[in-house]
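User: Can you help me understand a structure? I only have the sequence.
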Amino acid sequence: MNNTQHAIMMAIRATINRQPFTAAIDDPRRFYMLAREGGVSGMMFEALSEATCERDILTRFKRDALLYQMHHEKQMVLIKNVSAAFNAHKINHIYLKGVSLKAIYPEPYMRSMGDVDVLVKPETHERAIDALVEKGFSVTGRSRAHTNLKSPEGLLLEVHPELYSSIHPKHEPLFKNTWSHAIPTDTHRYVFNAEFELAYLVYHAIKHFYGTGVGLRSVLDIALYTVKKRDAFNDDALFSLMDQSALTQVFDNLLELGRRYFDLDAFPARADKHTVDAALFQRMTDYLFDSGVHGKAEGHNPFIGRVGAARLRDEGRLRFILRTLFMPYEDMRATRPWLKTRLLLPVAWLMRFASLLFKRTRRTLRKTRQLLFKKEKADELETMLRDFGL
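Assistant: Let's start by predicting it. Here is the structure, written out as tokens:
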């Protein structure tokens, strides 16, 4: 790790241990930028002081902490309103990822969320959307994976009818009977048992590795979750689930990153099972910082990761590009309800191309330029992901 990367890890350690951060920061502006892109800048303010961080940079961390807190309070109200709507219509639901992870952080606001994700059963998906529209929510987009909505206050919500997306068939066994892992908590609200939720967190991290990119926060989520929930795990059930779903090697490697980054180790007996040598550790660390949360760091090219990961599914660059341009029928139908037959698929493609060219011209040109990267970059990323266990 370089000095700035190491300083961020030490600041996160100090934060989760409720201790002051006392190490020197060589490049405060880059320190802040990487923390912000990694989705952790708003959680670190409590550990920082003017003794180690110059005043204007400290002010930025304070601003982010206040924004995290404000957004957290608004999202808690959103969750209450969504559950009230679902309870009134007897719709079973489970909040995913950030909502449940907030409890494992020193303060709930420290785990930021861009939007709120909630799972419902496939047969109640449309009824769930209708219940929210009745409460003033507006539908802003649809895909096979979820329906996007905006609350009357402008907050974002994703309603998922299922968890699995076809990133790789070897992970599909995890989702054979998702709701069998659900535990009721209040009326029609459920949570997942600890073993399934951890396996899902690992799967979700893998999903982002196959997609636009994964940031430091995903590693922190898993490291903290294993420590905070350690007594809740049935280890035999956990590793049976991991093995069946081809998640074990990635999990062991994510555990190793958590050990080295944050000094968090809930499974010391598995410390010798990782495959992270010094070279892979540095490559992965650079990638986590370069990509940022969900691959949104400035200067990051998400298509390198998507093409590199596609090769793990034996899909070449040309095939990936064609599949991206000419979306499969099922994906197109999810966004265009009028598409009732495959015969109309060419029409839908033409309409999509027209929208990309004339309504989203600047965005389309930027993404087109991103596709023109050297083959060697995808080769390097493919090798790193393969070495990591994907």
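Now, to help you interpret it: Strands lie at 93-95, 116-120, 138-142, 147-150, 156-160, 182-186, 189-192. The longest helix spans residues 55-88. Let me know which part you'd like to focus on.
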